[in-house]
Design brief:
Length: 437
């Protein structure tokens, strides 16, 4: 089976590599010639565990190719996935420019039946706009060629995307015709054979499912962050509360960890897009708006704790930050809480020394040399008055606290992810602060 995937960002590249791993012949298309040249040389633009090995293997086997022109491969594929970006517009809505550009390109070049599948996260009604764009291009060519559109949203966690694709909780597919359904069933046959559920539904429901899922997960995070704030005021321990409510089968224990706020390419953007969709349809998404506002506040919690620890004055203080990416096992800095914390610290007159296992270059690309980039977590602590854990990479979980203490000029530790044991840290002479304790 031959398919094309337009867009070689996070979603497109993971999708292409995984379909190729399942035996599908995949052509990945991107107008960014530099990116395609690098991919053809085995240089992967993002960090994701196992991705490089999978790309290299399937490219060597001839099942995965990278080109810059969709028209070059269009005649030889039956399904085209659109996995281009949908960045937030000024009002928070999803910008569909690139999605519609792909649709117009398909309509301008297709010669026979195609199934066009939206993989990007898009608001309800996008499929109809894609269909209209293709039809307009066909009309310009005075052609009446049959085609179908479908929605197949991704549910990939950065840091575990390969596993999520090959072993999914579910595959959601929105279709309008039996022909489209049959093609998608054939494409996902390896998933069906392994017993993973595929859910076929109408296209608007599939489009909404993605936003609803991300908004629900974001809601759980913001809910626990607000509970954590109340725990601090009342003397409760949020870890005990989390375990107490998570044991309720109606609630479950996933996404109940308080912290420095959520970030990344999905939750912030999709929450805002869902709020905007509600406005367009006259529905006030008050709960989701509260989730968004709570997360904006939470991104400053580590800074506020540092400021409080130093009596409200950070002038001249050296702060070490462990972790920069919005979560472990990725170099993604989009909407990362670390960026907010750094901005507050610098504006308060502090000096910032940082270390992250993989996100240093991406951070440098975003904020330049405004912070000092260090060779490891201990180097970051040299002469620091305080240290803040921001991203819970595994290598940060068991520091040599005696070594940290010897390197530092101060003794403040702010645990932005609640991974340390208070008594252990305090026994080494530190003043320890966490979230919700």
């Amino acid at each position: 089976m031959n398919i094309a995937i337009v867009g070689t960002g996070y979603v497109g590249l993971v999708t292409g590599a995984c379909f190729a791993e399942m035996g599908v012949n995949v052509t990945c298309v991107d107008i960014d010639k530099s990116k395609i040249d690098k991919l053809n040389r085995g240089i992967i633009p993002i960090y994701e565990p196992r991705l490089k090995e999978m790309v290299d293997h399937n490219a060597a086997e001839g099942r995965l190719k990278f080109i810059t022109s969709l028209s070059e491969c269009l005649d030889n594929v039956s399904i085209i996935f659109s996995a281009v970006g949908t960045p937030p517009d000024e009002d928070g809505s999803a910008d569909l420019k690139y999605v519609l550009d792909v649709a117009r390109s398909i309509g301008a070049n297709m010669k026979d039946y195609k199934l066009i599948v939206t993989k990007s996260t898009v608001p309800v009604g996008t499929a109809q706009r894609v269909k209209a764009a293709i039809s307009e291009e066909l009309a310009k060519r005075s052609l009446d060629i049959e085609f179908d559109v479908a929605s197949n949203p991704e549910f990939l966690k950065e840091g575990a995307a390969i596993k999520d694709f090959l072993n999914p909780d579910r595959v959601v597919i929105g279709v309008e015709s039996e022909r489209a359904r049959a093609l998608m069933e054939r494409l996902y046959r390896p998933v069906l054979l392994n017993g993973f559920p595929i859910m076929f539904m109408d296209i608007p429901s599939a489009e909404m499912t993605k936003y609803a899922a991300n908004a629900m997960l974001a809601t759980r995070i913001s809910f626990m962050n607000e509970i954590a704030a109340l725990c601090e005021k009342t003397g409760a321990n949020v870890d005990h509360v989390r375990k107490g409510i998570g044991s309720d089968k109606r609630i479950g224990d996933r996404f109940l960890f308080p912290g420095a706020g959520y970030g990344g390419s999905c939750f912030p953007k999709d929450v805002k897009a869902l709020i905007n969709t509600g406005k367009q349809w006259g529905v006030h998404m008050s709960v989701i708006e509260a989730v968004d506002n709570a997360n904006d506040r939470q991104k400053s919690v580590v800074f506020r704790k540092l400021l409080n620890a130093f009596g409200g004055d950070l002038t001249g203080k050296v702060i070490a930050m462990w972790g920069l990416s919005f979560k472990p096992d990725t170099d993604d800095m989009r909407e990362a809480p670390a960026l907010v914390i750094i901005e507050h610290l610098l504006n308060s007159g502090a000096k910032v020394r940082v270390f992250d296992p993989v996100a240093m270059e991406e951070t440098r690309r975003k904020i330049g040399e405004s912070v000092e980039y260090c060779k490891d977590m201990y180097d970051a602590c040299t002469d620091a008055h305080g240290v803040a854990l921001v991203t819970e990479w595994k290598q940060f979980r068991m520091p040599e606290w005696k070594r940290v203490k010897e390197l530092m000029s101060g003794n403040i530790v702010v645990d932005g992810r609640n991974i340390y044991v208070k008594e252990e840290v305090e026994n080494e002479g530190f003043v320890y602060s966490a979230i919700g304790k």
